[in-house]
Input
Amino acid sequence: MSLVSKIYDSWSWIRKEILSQLSGKLALALLIVLIGISIYAALVMPPDYTGTWDVGSKWEDNPHNAPPEWASYLGYTCVPQTYYDLRGFSPALSEAGGRIILTYNITYNLELKEYPRGIMIKVNVTVPQGVRNARIRVDVIKPDGARLSSLMSEYVDLTNTSEIVLKLYKLERVDAVIMSAYRELASFLDLQDINVRPMVYIFGNLSYSEDLKSVVVTPLTGRYVFVIVLDFRVLGIQADTLLRYVQRSREFSLLVKGTCYGLMGTDHMSRDLAQGLFFGFPIALAIGLLVALASTAIGVTAGLISGYYGGFIDEFIQRTVDVMGSIPLLPILILVAQSIAKTYTGTDKPIVMLAAIFAVLIVFSWGGLAIIVRSMTLSIKSELYVEAAKAVGASNLRIISKHVLPQIVPYIAASLVYSTPTAILTEAGLSVLGIRHGFPTWGNILAEARLHGSIRQWWWILPPGLLIAIVSLTFVLLGLALEKVVEPKLRR
Amino acid sequence: MWVCVLGVAEVLARRAVFLTLALFLAVFLTGFVIGATGYMDTIINAIIDEEVRAYRQMLINLPQRPPTDELERLVAQYKQELILYWGMDKPWYARIFPMVLNTMILNLGKAQSPEVTNVAGLAPNSPVIDVISSCLPRTIFMITIAEVIVILIALAVGPFIVYRIGSFTDRLVVAYAATMNAFPLWWIAMVMLLVFSYDLRIAPVRFREVIVHINALLSGDITALAGVLNYVWLPILTIVVVLTGPWIYSIRAMLIKIVKEDFVTAAIARGLPEKQILRRYIMRPAASPIVTNVLLGLAGTLGGFIITESVFDWPGMGTLYYAAVTSGDAPTILALTYIFTLIYVIARFILEILYVILDPRVRL
Output
């Protein structure tokens, strides 16, 4: 029988043993799901994903700190995200004294008693030669009849270019706009509060408090009209021509941000947490399995050499394991990671840091297995059939691969299973402490939740932790099932 | 008889040598990491730059401001003094290894960074030994006490379920242990904070304030105990909830191996009472692995749980170590690594002696 088929036999015995138990079945099912998701995520992951995760502009369309959409079942008021592609709308046209004015009236219905999280208008258009400049202005007419004039406006000089690329979302004059819209309340308005929470005043009903000494704001439902005015100063251009250009723009849109977002909500940078969690799967599994494979390989090799050859090399390996076992892992790991984080400046820093974390984890985790493999090897070495094999002139390599290795397969499997979750948990723990390697892992999402979020944002804190727990639970259950393989006494 | 005593003594002596070697290596390795990566130099250069900047500002603000070239000369001279003071004219190993050797003889020096002394609640530049001795009791009050509770529960429940392997209670305990093994302690800590401190508002939010109460308690004011309890109950509850499962499971695993032994089967067959079997035939042989786990577990708590303490912002040994690492405070880092390893090594050595007492086979 070849080595491969022997190990295969041993493996199929383990598999039968695992599948005979509930925890084993559960673990294998979970493992298949996890690996499936990881492979899928790794395949669809954009190549520059690590780089773009931290780029704020990629996420600007999302509301920040928004709970997931299904939070509406938990009592959250979820105003939906509303997007208007203005290229399809027909504006009112007017022409006068070298100016062409396009006016869009967009109706937005706010049905729920909650304030939308933001307004964003994007323009990306090429205008024909002869347009001197352009001004874009946005007014909002509220259900109570108040008109917020020039809530946002922007001026573009087009003497040297014919491109208009604009994003309107800043509300720099919002205090003045609100003041002039509600003149009768002006002396009671809190300007600072308007600047801190502009959306509340834009989408709110402003009225006197009962004692007539302050202003109370409550959400104002109903029909809002966004008046978007494009005002071009032109030389020899027809209004129709210009309109065609605007309608063929690369982007011209209005977005009223909702209060909930997607499957998993968003964080302080408006990032879609569902995406971060999804792409965290392959990274978590890769960290766990790489460390487990490497430390198991080292452990088996060291244990075999130590047990089979004995003598000085045995003494040396055993003492090394002894010494390594006495050195506390986590403090050293934190120290190494932090030292590199503070001093290394290359662009490949995430890789270097992760490699260093791997190295420390591997170096400190092969010892236990080496001791077990050594004692197994020692007892197998003194068996009669090994003596017999030696007598007929079998080489050391042959004895190790034919007689020793197949018998320690269960221990190798157990070691893989035990060290995988340890590596995942340790990496996540490092991230939570605030040591950033730069990869968007689950631990990293949790770390940012601690740093930038309120601990009340449950959708930001619970899912990453639960995922970490599910992954390690898979391996814990697998370990539980394997325990009876490794420890025959536990079998009944 | 004498031969065997000599044998035991030789084994113990060899262990002592290797444990001391491990201790030395741990501190040496730590020093190497801080030095070779350039971390210590980065921190010290930042300190020097800051002090030079402050000195220059001070000179500029003097009523009789010195002329520019004189000012530059004074600043350069001050900088040179600082470089000599911090030993930055020498390579890193010439600075770090004397520090390592000093640490080994418990000459721990002074804490460099305010972050470290802040965790301890002491004045800047306090001696490291004071910093550690003020943080250690806080870790004991939270983590060691929690661990003791966990161990007591596990020692009570473990023998109870070992007779009922496969029963519903047993399955429940195993399921609980497996689940809690999978959850990171520090994440459960975050969830507990979320629920008890922020949602229900029955636990404090800023745990660092416990310093005042623990200091009062340590100075003999028994009434401060209520204040300490007010802070400590949530962290202890968290640790007990998470660690009890795995602890019961490991005690159960140790006992099961012995329950399956022939001599236990024989004792049961002879119809001995359950209590006697448990005490004489099961717990006695299980004593050395259980004592190993308990002692190493308790020794491990003295170093603090770095991540969990950091989540609670508990001013103990773990938070202290993390503050020392993030602020690059070399003397404190070295001292803490030394203490962590020393505690572990001492525990291991005590175990070696206990094995001789507990297990007669070792003496043969």
About this structure: The two ends of chain B are 9 Å apart (CA to CA). Residues 132 and 147 of chain B are 21 Å apart (CA to CA). The mean pLDDT of chain B is 88.
